[in-house]
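Narrative summary of target 7.
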Amino acid sequence: MNARKRIVSNVRAVTLMVLLIVVFVVIIGRIVFIQTTKEVSGNRLDEMAEDQWKKQTVLPGKRGTIFDRDGEALAQEISSYTIYAILNKKQQSYVKDPKKTAEILAPHLDLTVEKVEELLSSDRFQVEFGANGKNLSHEKMEEIESLSLEGIFFRKEPRRYYPKQLFASHIIGYTDRDMAVARMGLEKSMDDLLRGKDGHIVYKKDGKRVKLLNPEENVVPAKNGDNIYLTLDSNIQIALEQVLTKVEEQYNPNKIIAIVADPKTGQILAMGNRPSFNPNQYEDITNYLNNSIADRFEPGSTMKIFTLAAAIEEGVYNGNEEYQSGTYRIGKDVVSDHNKVGWGRITYNEGVERSSNVAFMKIALEKLGEEKLYEYISKFGLDKKTGIDLDGESLSSIAKNSKLDAGATSFGQGTAITAIQQIQGATAIANDGKMMRPYVIDRIVDSENGTVIKQFDPVVAGQPISPATAKEVRSILESVVLNGTGKAFYNEGLDVVGKTGTAQIPKENGKGYIKGHGNNIFSFLGMAPKDDPQVVIYVAVDRPKLKPAESGSAPVAMVFNTILKHSLQYLNISPVKSDQKESAKDGGFSLADYTGVDRERAFEQLDAQGMNVTVIGQGAKVIGQEPKADTKILAGEKVLLLTETDTYQMPNLEGWSFRDLMKFGKLLNLQMNVFGSGYVSKQSIASGDTIKRHDFLTIELKEPNANEQIVESEDKVEERPME
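Modeled conformation, tokenized:
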């Protein structure tokens, strides 16, 4: 019995020993395996050890900035802040009194006290405050931080910011606030260049996650995005945005398009649309299209500029030749002038002034011929995209299926083109026949060292006409402004030339056109000064809400005249009266140099010569004058004398002409915004108040008895009735 028990015990001992040996072998084998392969469950031990002692930190690459032509930021990356609250009572600082904290904090976040208290009373480690608590400015962060609320903290984050807000928004576009996705405009099309590339730094740390002294570091530097400089002039663009807003509020049109370009280079100086948007609040966007390049429409009579130029270039235009205005028949179709009956037998030059459809039908079909008409449409680039460096440009639609299509195209119906195509074509008229491709990007610059990566130079898109033809077209278009349908665009001394347009809008079903007063696209394509145009401007206003007796040119002129004056002011081009030009030819009266002369003596001398003298300031000596010395002037002309002093008393400008207003602005280097046309009716700085150099001054001009003026217009219709 005992022997049997011993056998059983021995078996158990042997079994246990075998098991222990197996376990030992497995453990030793595992250790050998781990030592050999240095892996556990697919994870390398050396890498795990490295992770325990090393830390990697991202070095964010900064997004490039978009600047205007003078280096003012239009889109930039800035720091923003997200506010959050610690609620966990185990933390050193947490919200101890949710109710009191909510009462103090809620007004600063534009939230209700109840909503904030509900968040602060929740059973969570920490809470944020939704959209109202994100993207806070540095000033707002400091404002809340100064409240010293326990448990309230801020997280610093980068975001995209547009400092000029409603400013060329459809050109610049926008990104998400965190810049994760570029959504529109140059922000999207130039995203690869603007977007920064993140780097990183790897260093060793101790068990408490503290960086070791003199650790080995591995740094991959971040690469900031490139900067982009545009051709836009902020002075002109801001003035454009202001006047567009004013017209939008006063006339409530469906759309407005406005473009200002330098005809010598094709550079876009300003471009605006309505509806527009503030890219800082992109959730409110209602119009995603840059209508200046994406909207094609029947242009109306601005198209006549190109038909006229083609006829002159081909030698078939005789402005003194007479024709019978009124109607023009092509088979069963009859096209009428906009007043339905015409003006009897008139010259072609008068037909241009009156914007006669019949005149241009006869020019296109009887003198040029259909083939030549379309040849020049192509030469002026109206049948193709301009290639402007903006996404979303539309292609025109040229009607050329019949003789009627050719005739209607000659005066701007049936064929649909874009505003930017008209600007490009007009540069040929302004630039002695050379047509310049429009562009908005001036250069791309390395943001880290300032090196110019790429400079964009002017590109000649073609030469559809000769310098002589361009000069003659400008001369004829001047008469449109002086004597014809463009009188609303006359600006004393600025030598404006151009052509009005009143385009009909097709019905949605494609059958006929919308009827009714104001149901048109009213436009003007103009340039100045006539002999050497420095700016080309196109303005179109779609279906403004006009008063019963109001011309469609009114809202267009409000935009055009304001921007023309502002543009020429910043280009240092002063208005010149026609009588001043004549006096210059005849020798005139040469103004002496009064710089350094005693104020009273200068006044007495000029007054004795019959000048209208205004002295600015109470200083003893004259330090500036307008007009400048040796300028040819006439007796009775206003002469401004600036005296030596730090501050000046604002004169009463009421009744001053635009030309005299510009003299005043130049003497004090004022930042002026001028609205309207005619003579000064309102000034933002009251007469007698203090004014200093470089101050901002807003002026409203008004024509005498403006409400009683009736100007001949082509607003009625430009239609081609079908029989």
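The domain at 579-708 is CATH 3.30.10.20 (Trypsin Inhibitor V; Chain A).
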